[in-house]
Amino acid sequence: MSYQLTIEPLGAVIDVEEGQTILDAALRQGLYIPHACGHGLCGTCKVQVCGGEVDHGAANPFALMDFERDEGKTLACCATLQDDVTIEADMDDEPDARIIPVRDFAATVTRIVDLTPTIKALHLALDKPIDFQAGQYVQLEIPGLGQSRAFSIANAPADVQRSGEVELNVRIVAGGAGTTYLHEKLKVGDRLRLSGPYGRFFVRQSAHLPMVFMAGGSGLSSPRSMVLDLLGQGCTEPITLVYGQRTRAELYYHDEFVALAAQHPNFTYVPVLSNEPDAAEGSDWTGARGFVHDAAKAHFGGSFAGHKAYLCGPPPMVEACIGTLMQGRLFEDGIHTEKFISAADANAQRSPLFKRV
Ligand SMILES: Cc1cc2nc3c(=O)[nH]c(=O)nc-3n(C[C@H](O)[C@H](O)[C@H](O)COP(=O)(O)OP(=O)(O)OC[C@H]3O[C@@H](n4cnc5c(N)ncnc54)[C@H](O)[C@@H]3O)c2cc1C
Ligand code: FES
């Protein structure tokens, strides 16, 4: 059984299967509704129900507050239809966005590589080719959990096309059900299911502006794919990657970026460590120390006007970078973010510095 969903202001009418979420139906039919976590935590996919009945599903009470439910709002990633429904959604027009409908994939684990003590690279051979924009992510079904988790694709689209494999870089989260499974139980040869591509974190190439990528923790995945894609395409705009980790042991793909910076005069690589022991304690690190936003501020002399910035990583890092960029005269239209939101961040995900919801 299916219901009809009308999405305003587009006036698009789509079929939604019983039990299928509004977001899933829209993305599979090539209609983009803004979203991030995909499972009721972040509130990015909030839409207004203008007619008909929905079931709010597993929406987190912080992501969809009681008064918002009373006002007729719902989370598209959790809501299912009880009836034919009309919603109003914020369907922004992005000239650089490609319309790629979400599809399901089966995959086989071909390699698991320890990138750092806390991050593993999972190499997954897909049963059919995936089309995506560098920076986008997939939802990976965690076996036995009955839930998916979001992971950004860490290799460039050209590499995925050539090898038929996506690479996901997964940081283990203390107490996290999905990442613990992937780190401790997953093995080469296992079969997995995933869907994608999701998200609107991609390069606004039509802007033709210098780019600064700011990444922390496992948030390197998307910027790595984006930077490799840009350099692979022969992009000549200045590209700076400011990449922060706690220690040298956690700084994965460091040698790759050093080599890329030597090879491409328009690419600058600024690694920064926040908790590396000092020389007296045996560290040979001579690069920047501190947080990503501090290193970016020092590198750019505090001025970011005339750039496009792409921030990716844990919410506190992204927030700190937004503050630094705004102090440096780069504002909301010039800043694009992907926050690696987890259940622990459910009630504090949207930047209070951004006007747009
Ligand atoms: C768009 C996007 C892209 C991402 N890309 C990547 C990536 O490339 N690499 C990567 O490593 N990560 C990425 N992430 C993050 C990744 O999805 C999370 O690390 C993952 O969801 C954590 O899953 P988990 O099942 O291990 O933890 P969960 O079980 O979801 O728990 C996470 C944390 O929250 C705590 N917790 C659980 N429930 C609650 C609750 N109700 N209240 C408070 N705390 C709670 C847990 O103890 C744990 O510390 C991405 C996230 C998003 C949204
Ligand atoms: S995408 Fe729906 S709440 Fe995060």
UniProtKB/TrEMBL annotation:
Chain ranges of the 2Fe-2S ferredoxin-type domain: 3-93
Keywords assigned by UniProt, alphabetized: 2Fe-2S, Iron, Iron-sulfur, Metal-binding
Entry cofactors: FAD
UniProt-recorded Gene Ontology molecular function terms: 2 iron, 2 sulfur cluster binding; oxidoreductase activity
Keyword Methyltransferase in record: no
Gene3D superfamilies in alphabetical order: 3.10.20.30, Nucleotide-binding domain of ferredoxin-NADP reductase (FNR) module, Translation factors
Keyword Kinase: no
CDD domains: fer2 (cd00207), phenol_2-monooxygenase_like (cd06211)
Domain FAD-binding FR-type: 102-204
InterPro entries in the cross-refs: 2Fe-2S_ferredoxin-like_sf, 2Fe-2S_ferredoxin-type, 2Fe2S_fd_BS, Beta-grasp_dom_sf, Cbr1-like_FAD-bd_dom, FAD-bd_FR_type, FNR_nucleotide-bd, MRET
Protein name: Phenol hydroxylase P5 protein
Species this chain originates from: Sphaerotilus montanus
